[in-house]
Structure formats: structure tokens, C-alpha cells
Design a protein that fits this description.
By secondary structure, the protein is α/β, with parallel strands linked by helices. The protein contains 28 helices and 30 strands. The strands form seven sheets. It has an eight-stranded mixed sheet, sandwiched between helices.
Length: 706
């Protein structure tokens, strides 16, 4: 199809960029099987096998084989490694990839223990010990790591499980030592880590590397997008830092293996969370776009990547009606990826669920790119094509980006595109003050309980005590930790006053700083559209869901009635593992169509207001664990009182702000993916880590004005 002709009579404003692809030069030497290696793969192997201590940042481009760069040396010498991935879907997918590498290159599978670990998979692991009741996650992790004794070990997990284990959140004193007994830790897609996450990952890895009792001394960070501030900090604090830079070249003017193809990139102007409307308005075009055959006459596979789950709803529904002869699939938080979906779709509609990592073939792409990072991440889904192939893609961008690119050369390299985006797209908020304000507190929390012990109470009310280290070494260990905190986050020594402040704040912020991803309000729901039990974002359900809320007791009764014997056999363990994270319980029967309810948070009592206000001065307010939330919706939900009964008892880390969310977005340039929620009285409330970030921005703003 000649797309320029196609649009000659259309009112839709579009233009086309010819975007060059990328190549990487291959090394002329044996590597693995008949595979010719890239330089970064050969260099990674040399460093992993040759260095006693290593902090390696591999910034090679998307599609260049960063996984095999660490996996080959691990398999060669039967190392023990923990590999960390940002999503559970990617954990499971990469487990299959590791098994395939072992099979393809004829390693003996009996010489390695390979296991994926997620919260659900740990519940499955518990079934291997039917005679032992009350096994905790930490105990199971410990046993899994011990399975690698006498052979290679490759554990694939998410960062939540790793960090909670290292912070002793599983109350299993041996698990931290088990983690420190492996040889290497790999963090994939490191660019996705927020400032809180990257600060603590680097600090914890440094602390472990610095501890003479630890075997773990090699750390690999994989990311096509460099985090320059973290790399510089790693150098500044004295770690053995090695960086493998992106050495790719434009496909049209270089030699080597193609890794990213040339694109005929159609640019359209759009707005965040409105992409689905533009696609529906021009549906005939996108239907034809999906139907087009490739140049060799074969069916093509088209992927749509948008931002909101309701956008996925709308696009999936209209394409399913219009393309009855094609297989239309969806992947999002409510509809997880399966191997069958990824291997057999004709058209896949998704959001950020397929943004990174999960490997599948894509021929054409339609995507929203309202931030620089998302645009570049999503465009990288088109990869590993023949050098002569030109792929078609449609990208929706902010109007300012559309206007800027329209005035530029219509043929761009990938590097030139990045420079243009950097010049015109608003940079995200500067959260560097977080590293001085809250990272020292989290680093202290990470260390203190394992040194001096603590008393804790389990969910059944039973009190336990962790004894900590022998008193003879506690002083030196505290001194070691405080020195590391100073190096990473502070520009001065920690005196007695600052130490007291660390202790005071750590007691009040423990729950908010503990997790890797941070909490939000979720409901435990039975999805009647596919008969699965799921935790999902409460705000989405309130705004878009056809839902019936109920008490926990009624919810479990209805599950038993609906599922029969399957409840006790398969669903009850899932319910038990998820119920403590639920701020509400509901039956979900799809969406309410194009309608959207208005949602406002409020408080249920004077005690709630006292805890969330923390005095009347906004700049003096601090994030805290708060209960007593309720919501109201317009139009109302008949069963909303049942939700509010449950929600009001649920504690969550929160910060109230005396401004509406639109004013805050404009003032602090929060961007479209920083979540603030409306609170009664024209105020805003943020939850989880966002409560910490908005607190930093408010206090930093006040300090500038005094």
C-alpha cells in the first residue's frame, strides 16, 4: 500500500518518517555453537569469569543478546546466580528461554537447577511439603537455593521477592545468608527502576559486596538506557565498575548483524489515554492496516500498545467485531500473557504489560508514545528482521512533538530521533532530593534489625524475636553501615543528632519503605468473564468496572457456591495468599462501556483526619500509614457501602496534599504517569512510593523559597 496516497484525501493529519535501523558488528571468533558473538557478549564473559568483584553495567541496545552475555559464562562454569526481572510474566518467560539455551547448545540439564520464583509459584512449591504446615516464604526460598548444591543454580525472580528477602521481611534468618551464598546477581531492565529502587538496589549490592562473609560479589545491570547518575555513584563509592556502551551503528551505513529494522513510521498527534478514540475514529484505516500482507505474501502480526486498560478494552472490542477472520488477543493486567496467545495471535492489543522483555514476533506496530522512555521502549518491540525489510508502524505523540518532528528531515537515524525527543519532550520531575531525604532512612532500616534484632508479631498475633548479631560485633557492623550510607547519600558524616533522626523516622516509615514497588489500593475480585481470582487496581474498578462489592465473608461464601470443590482444591490457597493485600472484595462482570465514574476519596472519622493531616501545615506533613479511607462515586455504585466498610479498616501508606492534582501536575511537572487521587475539599492524596516522592517535591519547593 502507498500510505501517502492513502492519506491524500483524508482529514487526518499524519506524516511519515523513514527511521533507520541498527546493526552491531560481530566478532570473528567462536562463541557458542554456530553463534557469532557481539563484542559486549565476549567482553561480559571475560569480565564475569575473570573478575573477583564486579559491577557491570551493560548498555548494549535492545535485541543485542544481553541475556546470553551473562548466561553463557554461568552455564560454562556452573555458577550460582539470581536473575531479577521487573514482571512475573517476564520471570516465567525467561525461565523458558534459559531452558531453551541449555537444550539448544547441549549443556547437560542435570548439572543445573533452573527455577522461576514468584509469589504464586512459591505457593505451588509449598505443595511439595504436604506434611509441614505453616511453611513461610523465606523457608521455601532457602530450600530452593539449596537445590543448587553441587551443580549450577539459576533462579529467576522479581525484585520484590529479592529485596524483601534481603530486608528480612520473610522472618527467616537463614534466607539472607542463602542469597549471599550465590556467586552473581543479574538485574534486567534496570532503566525501569525508580530513584528509590535504584538507590536501594545499588546500596544493598554494595553492602553485600563489602561484607567479607559474603560469597556474592558480581552484579550485572542490564539496560539499553543508561542510568548515568547510578553509574557515577557506583564509581564514586569505590566499586569495581565496568560499563559496556552501546556500539550499534545505523543499519544503512554499517556492516554487521541487523538488530533493529528500518521503519516507515507514521506520526499522528494524540493525547494521553485518548488514543483509543483516535483509533476508533479512523477504524477503517486500522482494520486495513491489520489485514495487509507482508512483501512475501504472508500474514503479518500487528501489535497495539496503549496506556490505559480501558483503551485496551475499547480497541480489542472494535477490532474483534471488524476482524472476524483474524485471531484478536489482548494482554493486560486482567488478561495475562500465555504462550498460546503470543505464538498464535494475528492482532494483539495491550498496554505496558508487553512493553519490555517478553519475546514474540511482531511485524507491524501501533503505539502511543507520550513520554520519551515509553516511545523508545515500545518502538524497540520491532526487532530481529532481515536487513532488507522495512516495517510499518504508527505512533501517536503529543502535539508539540508532532509539530517539531514535522519540521525536520523525514529520514532519521535512531540517534537523531532520540536527540529530537530530548529537545522537545518535557523531562520528568527531578527526584534527586529523595536520595538525601529518604534513601538514608531505608538503608538504615535495611541494616538495623539484622544487627541488633527486633521483636515482631505475625498475622496470628504471636510475638517473635530476632536476636540479631553478637554484641561483640554490633558496634563495628553499625559503623560499617553508617559509613556506606554517608558515601552513597550524604555529603557529611552522620553525627549523633542525625543518627537519632534516622532511628526516629525509620520507626514511622518502615511499612512505606519496605516493598520494592510500593503499595496501591487493590481489590480482590472474582472475574466472572474468565472465572479467575485476581488482585486489581481499585481505582480502575471504581471508575470503569461493572462490579458488586461485598464483605470478605460473603465473598468467600459466593466463591464456594460458584466454584464448588474447585474452591478448596485450587482457589482457596490463592485467596489466602492475596486477601491481606485487599482493600475490598468484589465480583467483576466487565466494564460499564464508554462511561467513567467520578471517584473522590474522603475520611471516615476525626481520627482519620488527625492521622492524615498531621497538623495543618502542608510542608510539615509527612507520609504515614493511615486507615479510615472511604470513597464516593458519581454515579454511585449500589454496593459501595460494603466496599467502604472494608476500605475504612485497611491501612496504606499515604500523603495528603492541600492542592488539587491538576495544579500539582502543572507545578511539579509530574507527568502523565505520576498517580495522584482526588480527596474531598479540593485536595489530593498519593499512596505508596508516590507519597514519598510528592513529599520530597513539596519540601524542596519550600526550601527554595525560604
Amino acid at each position: 500500500m502507498d500510505y501517502d496516497e492513502e492519506f491524500s484525501d483524508k482529514s487526518v493529519d499524519v506524516f511519515f518518517l523513514n527511521l533507520d535501523g541498527l546493526r552491531l558488528e560481530q566478532m570473528d571468533q567462536d562463541y557458542i555453537g554456530d553463534f557469532q558473538a557481539f563484542e559486549h557478549q565476549v567482553e561480559s564473559e571475560r569480565l564475569i569469569k575473570g573478575c573477583q568483584s564486579l559491577f557491570l553495567f551493560n548498555h548494549s541496545p535492545t535485541g543485542s543478546g544481553k541475556t546470553i552475555s551473562w548466561l553463557k559464562p554461568v552455564l560454562d562454569v556452573k555458577m550460582k546466580v539470581i536473575a531479577v526481572y521487573p514482571t512475573n510474566a517476564l520471570v516465567i518467560d525467561q525461565k523458558k528461554q534459559v531452558d531453551e539455551v541449555i537444550r539448544r547448545f547441549r549443556y547437560d540439564p542435570r548439572e543445573y537447577h533452573v527455577q522461576a520464583i514468584t509469589s504464586d509459584l512459591l505457593n505451588e512449591e509449598k505443595k511439595l511439603y504436604p506434611d509441614e504446615t505453616g511453611l513461610r516464604k523465606g523457608q521455601l526460598l532457602n530450600r530452593i537455593i539449596r537445590k543448587g548444591r553441587g551443580r549450577g543454580l539459576i533462579l529467576l525472580t522479581n525484585p520484590d521477592i529479592l529485596t524483601l528477602a534481603l530486608k528480612d521481611a520473610y522472618y527467616e534468618h537463614n534466607i539472607r545468608e542463602a542469597v549471599r551464598s550465590v556467586d552473581m546477581l543479574v538485574v534486567d531492565e534496570f532503566h525501569l527502576a525508580s530513584v528509590k529502587q535504584s538507590d536501594m538496589l545499588l546500596f544493598m549490592m554494595h553492602e553485600i559486596n563489602d561484607d567479607k562473609r559474603s560469597q556474592l560479589s558480581k552484579f550485572i545491570f542490564l539496560s539499553a538506557t543508561p542510568n548515568h547518575s547510578i553509574v557515577e555513584r557506583a564509581r564514586r563509592v569505590g566499586l569495581n565498575v565496568m560499563v559496556l556502551h552501546d556500539k550499534s551503528m545505523p543499519l544503512s551505513s554499517s556492516f554487521g548483524r541487523p538488530i533493529l529494522p528500518r521503519l516507515k513510521l507514521e506520526i499522528r498527534s494524540g493525547a494521553i489515554y485518548k488514543t483509543y478514540e483516535l483509533i476508533k475514529d479512523d477504524l477503517d484505516y486500522f482494520v486495513e492496516f491489520c489485514k495487509q500482507f507482508s512483501s512475501n505474501g504472508k500474514n503479518t502480526r500487528t501489535v497495539f500498545i496503549v496506556d490505559g486498560i480501558y483503551e485496551v478494552d475499547e480497541i480489542f472490542n472494535v477490532l474483534s467485531e471488524a476482524l472476524t477472520d483474524l485471531r484478536i488477543e489482548r494482554v493486560d493486567g486482567l488478561h495475562p500473557a500465555t504462550r498460546d496467545k503470543l505464538e498464535n495471535f494475528d492482532v494483539l492489543v495491550s498496554n505496558s504489560s508487553v512493553e519490555v522483555g517478553i519475546d514474540f514476533d511482531v511485524d507491524r506496530l501501533v503505539f502511543s508514545g507520550y513520554s520519551k522512555s515509553k516511545l523508545l521502549q515500545r518502538i524497540g518491540r520491532l526487532r530481529n528482521k532481515p536487513a532488507e525489510e522495512v516495517c510499518d508502524a504508527v505512533c501517536f505523540v503529543p502535539e508539540v512533538v508532532y509539530d517539531h518532528l514535522k519540521g525536520q528531515n523525514r529520514s532519521l537515524t535512531r540517534e537523531e530521533l532520540v536527540h529530537h525527543l530530548e529537545s522537545v519532550m518535557s523531562s520528568e520531575q527531578d527526584l534527586s532530593s529523595y536520595s538525601k531525604m529518604y534513601s538514608p532512612v531505608e538503608a538504615w532500616l535495611y541494616s538495623k534489625s539484622r544487627i541488633d534484632g527486633e521483636t515482631w508479631t505475625d498475622k496470628n498475633g504471636k510475638e517473635h524475636h530476632t536476636k540479631g548479631m553478637p554484641e561483640s560485633i554490633q558496634r563495628s557492623e553499625f559503623f560499617r553501615i553508617l559509613t556506606l550510607i554517608e558515601k552513597h547519600f550524604l555529603d557529611r558524616e552522620i553525627d549523633g543528632q542525625m543518627l537519632d533522626q534516622l532511628k526516629y523516622e525509620s520507626d514511622r516509615l518502615k511499612e512505606g519503605l519496605l516493598s520494592y514497588r510500593g503499595d496501591n489500593l487493590q481489590a480482590l475480585m472474582f472475574d466472572a468473564t474468565d472465572s479467575h481470582l485476581k488482585l486489581y487496581d481499585l481505582m480502575y474498578l471504581l471508575r470503569r468496572g461493572n462490579v458488586e462489592f461485598m464483605s470478605a465473608q460473603r465473598f468467600t461464601r459466593r466463591l464456594r457456591e460458584t466454584l464448588g470443590v474447585d474452591y478448596d482444591a485450587n482457589v482457596k490457597p490463592i485467596y489466602d495468599s492475596k486477601k491481606s493485600f485487599a482493600a475490598g472484595f468484589c465480583w467483576y462482570c466487565g466494564t460499564i462501556g464508554d462511561k467513567t465514574r467520578k471517584v473522590v476519596f474522603k475520611g471516615d472519622s476525626g481520627e482519620h483526619y488527625k492521622r492524615i493531616m498531621l497538623g495543618s501545615d502542608d510542608r510539615a506533613r509527612k507520609p504515614r500509614m493511615v486507615s479510615g479511607f472511604k470513597v464516593r462515586t458519581e454515579p454511585t455504585i449500589p454496593t459501595l457501602s460494603s466496599l467502604n466498610d472494608t476500605l475504612s479498616k485497611f491501612e496504606i501508606f499515604a500523603r495528603l496534599v492541600e492542592q488539587d492534582r491538576f495544579s500539582l501536575n502543572a507545578k511539579y511537572r509530574l507527568g502523565d504517569f505520576f498517580y495522584l487521587y482526588p480527596y474531598s475539599g479540593g485536595r489530593s492524596v498519593s499512596f505508596g512510593h508516590n507519597a514519598l516522592y510528592i513529599d520530597c517535591l513539596i519540601k524542596e519547593d519550600y526550601d527554595r523559597r525560604i
